[in-house]
Amino acid sequence: MYKHKPKIVISRCYIDPVRYDGNKVNETFVHNLLKFVEYIPICPEVEIGLGVPRDKIFLIKKDTYRIYQNGNDITDKMEIFSENFLRNIGNIDGFLLKGKSPSCGVTGAKTYKKNDGSEFIGRRSGIFVRKVRNYFPHLPIEDEIRLKGHHIKISFLLRIFLYSTFKSWKDKKNFIKEYEIFLRLFNEKFFKEFSKEPSEKNIRNILKRNLSKERAFYILSLIDKKKIKSLPFPLELIK
Ligand code: SF4
User: Fold this and answer.
1) Which of 131, 126, 153 is nearest to 142 (CA)?
2) DSSP 104-148
3) What is the pLDDT of residues 77-92, one digit of tens each?
4) Residue 1 above 60 pLDDT?
5) How far is it, in rounded angstroms, from Cα 168 to Cα 181?
């Protein structure tokens, strides 16, 4: 068993059949990852009492973005639930949420002009995710679609595992020695501050953005050539 388990929030439909049509989502990477993390499953639509199966929800562009089911605006209910949930969730390391959903979708949620889901106008984030971003701007928030990109996947794994490992690592100077290469590649400027003061605030600064594509692929090439001594996450997650 891997030593440090990040704690992440996941969309419940990755593990339970709670989608609007009574199905669940089968994603190999997500299922592999769940063996190595502690996870909190949540289905915001079930939590606000919509049941399974349920009629579809539509994301509608008004002055702001709203969600509707059968012509009824259920945005306030969803926002109240989201705020209560996020406020009380405690110390977590990231989010893995179902793509394209009007609630959970990190990207790709279809947006319409009319309350009944007619007149498609584009894609954006779901309503729940918008609250997640407000509460946890420093944490990685990804979906299974974005994680198909190797560079996004390596950033996500490094961010959740380095952050959780740091919090439970006793000798912080030794942590820096062990993972210096990754920390420098994330952010050289913040790495310098972190070296002087290895605090939680400073590691958050280092890890608050994804690696550039070039740097993520550089790390992957080092892993391929077996040039990395200490990887903070299980190798099988990227093989
Ligand atoms: S995407 Fe989110 S709201 Fe939709 S079924 Fe999955 S967990 Fe529930």
Assistant:
1) 153
2) T-SS-EEEESSTTS-SEEEEE--HHHHHHHHH-TTS-EE-TTGGG
3) 999 999 999 999 999 9
4) no
5) 20
pLDDT confidence bin for 4, thresholds 50/70/90: confident
Residue labelled with tokens 């040039």? 227
**What values do phi and psi take at 95, rounded to 5?**
-135, 140
Q: Please compute, for residue 136, the number of CA atoms within 13 A of its CA located in the half-sphere on the CB side.
A: 23
**Is pLDDT of 2 > 60?**
no
- Domain end (from 142, 173, 205): 142
Q: Is residue 185 pLDDT above 50, yes or no?
A: yes
Number of Cβ atoms within 10 Å of the Cβ of 121: 13
Q: What's the CA-to-centroid distance between 204 and ligand 1, angstroms?
A: 28
Of 142, 175, 205, the residue that ends a domain is 142
Tokens 């942590």, located at residue: 175
Q: What is the mean pLDDT of residues 134-145?
A: 97
Q: Which domain holds residue 205?
A: 149-238
Distance CA 236, CA 76 (A): 42
Question: pTM score > 0.85 for this model?
Answer: yes
Q: Which atom of ligand 1 is nearest to the CA of 25?
A: 6
Omega within 30 of 0 (cis) for the link into 44: no
Q: Are residues 221 and 164 in the same domain?
A: yes
43 lines ligand 1 (CB under 6 A): yes
| Per-residue pLDDT band at 10 (split at 50, 70, 90) | very high
User: Is 96 part of a structural domain of the chain?
Assistant: yes
Structural domain contains residue 232: yes
Q: How far is the CA of 44 from the centre of ligand 1 (A)?
A: 6
The helices-and-strands tally (H runs, E runs) of the chain is 9, 9
